[in-house]
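Reminder to self: tokens first, then the designed residues, so the page reads top to bottom the way the pipeline ran.
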């Protein structure tokens, strides 16, 4: 009997064990990105509207990813995968633009310089999230 084909994937497993740590980190980023974006938009929006709107968008992505990762079921797993993919694309695009055209981002966002201001965790987090989702996908 081949153990790799007989292995049953448990969708509930996404929310237990190391998945809880992943959800917690996403939750922390959701809170910190939301607070940062709210402060930036409320106090300095005219200085760098694109950067601050991107911070707000990143906050929304982190909130959606956190909620979707925490909820069981195929639909939530798909929403989580979509949010994490958007996050990865955002980190890569904004990170590259902020490196190659620093004047386009005069003020930092969560994703600027590939998340340098957050210890590069924004670059690593979506990769870990996608790996986690892949390993805990539902058998269909």
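Designed residues (140 positions):
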């Amino acid at each position: 009997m081949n153990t790799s084909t007989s292995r049953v994937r448990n969708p509930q497993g996404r929310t237990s064990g190391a998945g809880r740590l992943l959800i917690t980190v996403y939750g922390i980023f959701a809170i910190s990105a939301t607070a940062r974006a709210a402060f930036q938009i409320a106090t300095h929006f005219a200085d760098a509207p694109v950067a601050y709107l991107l911070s707000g968008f990143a906050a929304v992505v982190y909130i959606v990813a956190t909620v979707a990762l925490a909820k069981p079921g195929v639909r939530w797993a798909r929403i989580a995968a979509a949010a994490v993919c958007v996050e990865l694309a955002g980190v890569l695009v904004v990170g590259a633009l902020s490196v190659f055209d620093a004047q386009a981002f005069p003020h930092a966002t969560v994703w600027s310089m590939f998340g340098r201001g957050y210890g590069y965790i924004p670059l690593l987090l979506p990769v870990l999230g996608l790996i986690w989702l892949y390993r805990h996908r539902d058998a269909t």
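Helices lie at 3-6, 18-44, 49-70, 74-100, 121-135.
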